[in-house]
Amino acid sequence: MELFLKNKSDALRTFLSLVGVSVGIFVVTVSFSLVDAFSHSVVAGFDHFGSDMIMVERFPVTGGGDWSRYAARPQPRWEDYMALSGTSAGWTAFAAEAQADIVCDGKMLRDCKLLGVSGAWQHLVYSRVSSGRDFSAAELSGAGSKVIIGSKVAQELFGQDNACGRTVRIDGRNMTVTGVLSYEGKNVINLYATDYALVVPYAVARGLAGRDNLETMIAIGPGAEGREAAMENARRTLRASRGLRASQEDNFALNTMEDLCRETVSLTRKISAGGLAIALFSLLIGGFGIVNIMLVSVKERTFIIGLKKALGAKRRRILLEFMLEAVSLSLMGAAMGLLLAWGALALIPSGVLTVRLSAANAILGFAMAVVLGLASGVLPAAQASRLAPVDALRS
């Protein structure tokens, strides 16, 4: 293109315009790709946990409110779990979380997740016992010395050796490994990450960490009664378990996986909207730059335009020439932006989110560039096409 070769100021203007376009396309494609990855993780979470799972917690997932008041609420108690287990038509599970160190043969892993469980605890995690065995009913309800470890714990402590049957020390207590969980990775919709977990019966966790140092949760599977009926039953049971009078409000929250999904979708929409706003601002700057470049080009090429018209070039040909030039500039910026987006997304570890630059998002980026180029080229192209041949040749 002739305008690239005139002088250094033209080259600088062109470069800055391309930067504006490339940044806009970069932000659009990256934000949309992240939204796609979040959505995929949300679907995976629903497929695993199911939208009907009910979680008894201190904080509501939705609704906002006075968070300091929620923090003052009592945590879900073992007594609450026992009361719910006796009235629920589906499954119930209890989980308590803390941190603990594990040692074996001189190797130590600090601050692993100590997860004390009871009931149908397998519903709370993605992983399954991949080697060894699960707890027996007697082990799960007692305070024995059995532990199921996460895949990363097994790998770092035992390497390729079989961990099952080995003796480890957790916060100074000897425990026998009965099973190893499958590798989990990272998920957006997740209740408990288990790759570095030490899963023990709740009574064991309470003995190791102390009841007051455990963060607890109760989960309920509605079963045949349905979610709404299960939530109402759980509310009545919990109010009775906690001795709440009719005039007192609930001091617990009943959250569902659907609530968690709704909040996640809301977050992705905010990310998308914020990214789009930044992108449009950057594209606007790039568009003004292209308009400026094209207007300068019209001025510098006035004689050539007049000569082409004198030789028979139609107005629409001149118009098309400048429009194509503006679109070409915009597409060059888009190509730069997409290349940057591909590189940035490739840097995201696959264990965190499975993010890729899809063909649909790449096409969207190029489509936005074409629209920007057409919009930016309209005024300069119209100005060039309206030049009178005689006046242009005199310039």
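That was protein one. Protein two is written in the same sequence-then-structure order:
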Amino acid sequence: MMTLTLNKQYYWLSLGIVCIVLFCSIIGYVIWQWRNDWVLTHQSVSNTPAFSFKKNNIDINNLPGLHLFGQSLNDGSMPITNLQLRVTGIVMIDNQNASKAYISFADQPSKIYRVGDRLGYGITIYAIMPDAVILENDGHFEKLLLPRQKLEFKPRIFKEE
């Protein structure tokens, strides 16, 4: 009977010691975090800026020719391309970046392209419109038109039986 009482005493004693150690650990952690927060909030602020400016060598006199907001495509003076490309179809979506153009090279099967895709040889899809694709060819714009075929209606022939 004595051993049973001793085991209970050791159990309660060890449980108390574990609780005291855990409590002291938590208090120590809280004090350490409080100290770190206090040091962080009471640091002296330096006068150095958090960002820096890079010096750009831009001539102010050239600003009007830099196309700051992009180049206009609506002036109508865009030449039609002489490249051996053919638009076989256009899928227009409200978001122009999601629009697709089906383009074939030299009567090869068509491939699907979006705005920003490269066709090769320095040619990039700049914009897709309902009736044309605007190409950027080595820094200048060219228009690749969607060919339209005129519909021809044939008279309907009725067969008599």
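The mean pLDDT is 80. Keep this in mind for the problem set.
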